[in-house]
Amino acid sequence: METAELTDLYQASYYLLNGCEILGVACIPAGMGTSCRIAVQGANLTALAQDWFDRKAVVNLWAFRNAYTEIHTHVQQTKRSYDVSRRFQGASRGSGGTADGHGGIQ
What is the domain extent for residue 50? Predict the structure, then answer.
């Protein structure tokens, strides 16, 4: 199985529709905000990536909409968890807190 990490929700949705599995979503700092890295795994990931970047990717619109909604939900949950962890870490620095500040869904 091949694996890849990406931040493009549309690309991740395309991979999901073509048999790939979402392994996890993790937050990463991006300038003044936060972005999410999506880990995917699949047997045909290289061929799918080639079709994606060659602009040959074709999907059923309704299925794509559902896949995008699923991934977007994971990303939003991960960002909320990450924000709570960051707030907890900031509030507990003086009191010996142990929050590592990393959010993610596995």
Answer: 1-62
pLDDT tens-digit profile, the chain (106 residues): 999 999 999 999 999 999 999 999 999 988 888 899 999 999 999 999 999 999 999 999 999 999 999 999 999 999 999 988 888 877 665 544 434 445 565 5
Residue 5 domain flag:
yes
DSSP 10-29: HHHHHHHHTT-EEEEEEEEE
With respect to residue 18, please indicate whether it lies within any of the assigned structural domains.
yes
Residues 94 and 96: their CA atoms lie apart, in Å, by 6
How many angstroms from the chain centroid is the CA of residue 82?
A: 13
Query: Does the residue 12 lie in any domain?
Result: yes
> How many independent structural domains does the chain possess?
1
Main-chain phi, psi angles of 97, to 5 degrees: -65, 160
Q: How far apart are CA 71 and CA 78, in angstroms?
A: 11
Q: Are 20 and 45 in contact (CB under 8 A)?
A: yes
Single-letter residue type at 9: L
